[in-house]
Amino acid sequence: MNFAEIKALDDAYVLQTYGRNQVAISHGHGAVLYDTEGRKYIDFTSGIGVCSLGYANENWAQAIYNQAMRVGHISNLFYTEPYARLASKLVPASGMSGVFFGNSGAEANEGMIKVARKYSYEKYGQGRAAIITLKNSFHGRTITTLKATGQDHFHNYFFPFTEGFRYAIANDLESLQAQAGDDVCAVMMELIQGEGGVNPLQKDYVQAVARLCAEKDWLLLVDEVQTGIGRTGTLFAFQQFDIQPDVVTFAKGIAGGLPFGGFLTNEKCRTVLRSGDHGSTFGGNPIAAAAANVVLDTLTPDFLAQVKENGQYLRDGIASLQSPYVSGIRGMGLMLGVGVQGMAHKELKNRLMDQGLLALTAGKDTLRLLPPLVITKEELDQGLDIMAKVMRV
Ligand SMILES: *Cc1c(COP(=O)(O)O)cnc(C)c1O
């Protein structure tokens, strides 16, 4: 089917909930994508930070095929090898104690919230269930994670929302302290706010929050759905903030393009959720777990060092454009936000796409770059050439 045919079916039959780019992607290789009309794109999106190994990765595709030919799904009433192997790598590498597998970021965050509330309920009883999250955050699209998201425009239409969320200003300890109270059980945050505009939290702030949490026995909940699994140049971003969360979530990049997610807990929270307290039909699916094993095996120390180096290379390359449209560059590893001025961020994204570079937007004025972690210098250079063409005057 060509673009027009696909779009006609979408218009006729699919709920129109996305502001889509007027492009239908057909296939790709590495960090290069092709649309149905044969146009080529350098990909600085990875979906939205999902396709960590790029497109058509041989090992990834082979692992999926092999597992599909053995058993594609069986319920969690049985053991299977792929998720068990994955857990045995993920838990030690993160310094956590145990893991729960689900399918998506929002589902992972829901589970993390359940851990916090049950931990507090068992220790302190009812009435200590409030969770402080940060303004400008993004935690998902379910009724509860929408309410956890610290952006007012997500709190419309779907009333009644889950109670018990309060919001503090990021990087402002006093604002957090002002939300304190006997009813609080946890603080939940992204270390780089992704959808909110690629805003990294300050290290001393994050450490001060961790200390405050330890002091008050609030759980420190870190949402690494976007920042996790190598995106920032370490397995988890928290490893560069020198903190250890009580619970941390992951999703987007974990299985390189298959739906997968989950959360890790520390020793203190390891037995909070027990038999019957939580579950997920598809969670730990053998095919998705087999794919995730390939992703984790790829994230060697050398590979992660390369992610940091390529992130710096891309950053330097953008800075050297000296574009009047760039107000600043933020982020870590291959998660970069380019502040856009003098043009709407969506307009810039569209102009780059017209010239063959895919990028994302975030917040009000940010171009968000999340290239596949396997992107090569040559592919980065091709992307930078397109940025130069569009953004230099
Ligand atoms: C994308 C994202 C989510 C939601 O993930 P879904 O898989 O879409 O449910 C939650 N938190 C953060 C930080 C995200 O970037």
Q: What would your notes on this structure say?
A:
The protein has a seven-stranded mixed beta sheet, sandwiched between helices. Strands 1-2-3-15 form a four-stranded mixed beta sheet. Helix 3 packs antiparallel against helix 9 (286-298), helix 4 (81-94) packs parallel to helix 9 and helix 10 (301-319) packs parallel to helix 12. Helix content is 37%, strand content 19%. It folds into two domains: 3-57 and 301-391, Aspartate Aminotransferase, domain 1 (Alpha-Beta Complex), CATH 3.90.1150; 70-298, Aspartate Aminotransferase, domain 2, CATH 3.40.640.10. It is globular, with a radius of gyration of 21 Å. With 393 residues, it is an alpha/beta fold. The structure holds pyridoxal-5'-phosphate (PLP). Pyridoxal-5'-phosphate binds at residues 104-106, 109, 138-140, 190, 194-195, 223, 225-226, 251-252. Pyridoxal-5'-phosphate binds next to helix 5.
Present the secondary structure layout:
Elements: H1 3-13, E1 25-29, E2 32-35, E3 40-43, H2 46-49, H3 58-70, H4 81-94, E4 98-102, H5 105-124, E5 130-134, H6 143-148, E6 165-168, H7 173-178, E7 184-189, E8 192-193, E9 199-200, H8 203-216, E10 219-223, E11 247-250, E12 261-265, H9 286-298, H10 301-319, E13 326-332, E14 335-340, H11 345-354, E15 357-358, E16 360-362, E17 366-369, H12 377-391
Parallel strand pairs: 3-15, 5-6, 5-7, 7-10, 10-11
Antiparallel strand pairs: 1-2, 2-3, 4-12, 8-9, 11-12, 13-14, 14-17, 16-17
Helix pairs in contact: 3-9, 4-9, 10-12
This protein binds pyridoxal-5'-phosphate.
Residues 104-106, 109, 138-140, 190, 194-195, 223, 225-226, 251-252 line the site of pyridoxal-5'-phosphate (PLP).
